[in-house]
Predict the 3D structure of the following.
Amino acid sequence: MNWTEILVTVDTKNTEVCAAICNMAAIGGIYIEDYSDLEQGAWDIAHIDLIDQELIDKDRTKSIIHIYVSEENNFSEAKQFITERLNAEHIDYNIEINGIKDSDWAENWKKFFKVTPVGERLIICPLWEEYNNTNNKTILRIDPGAAFGTGTHATTYLCLQMLDKYVKDGVSVLDIGCGSGILGVASVLLGAHNADGVDIDLTAVKVAKENAVINNVENRTRFIDGDLAEKIDGKYDIICANIVADIIMRLNSNIEDYMKQDALYITSGIIDIRADEVKESFKQCGLTIVEELKKDNWYAFALKRR
């Protein structure tokens, strides 16, 4: 497999917002080149003030965000997503496209995905890592492959944190935009009777099914391809949607069609600069916030029908 590298250059004042946007488009992760505080950073991290001239000569006014997209995913869609969001934020940018071989990326990427505890009960463990479960935690083993959802990204972590708190024995769960299947699989491991997941990306559906098998919950999970909940019927105790602000606001208008009377709606993928707009959408759609969490620059909300 080959990977496509997308490089987005922006003014350093816009680095944080641009990185947040790129994170939602990056299947394979991102990293940021920002030399605006090179001297102070070198001292704080390595306690040195001798820096290569090549670094000193870097443009201090610009940041470069590197995004990685596999050949199984449409990098042009990722590029379009980033372009639309940056235009909406009135941010000047430049985008370049490079190719990168899988052998140069896959193993290095795994170095950054480690065992991650979430909430009181849950441990996220990469398939290639070992965990000594002396505390009798619930272990979720995951290999996200080319699908979004490792548990380390703030939006997924926040959703998992809420599931750890709210999933009780016997509940039914729906995950809209399921990605790697991590939320649905985690729900069943935490006690849900069943979990359904839907994603518009066929690769994500394939990966989600594989992760269900890895965790021996394939008989209590169902993953299908579709746009939002168009192929879903029935009502659920818990609904998850870890997507992006625009799609969440689109989903809000008919989410009650899939909620039982006392159902909980958990949603994330909402960058801080869009939070107020999404909250207003909740209000207009008859949804009441019962819990609000924030990690880094991302929000997650738990809601009930008014």
Q: What stands out?
A: Residues 235 and 257 are 7 Å apart (CA to CA). DSSP finds ten helices and 14 strands in the chain.
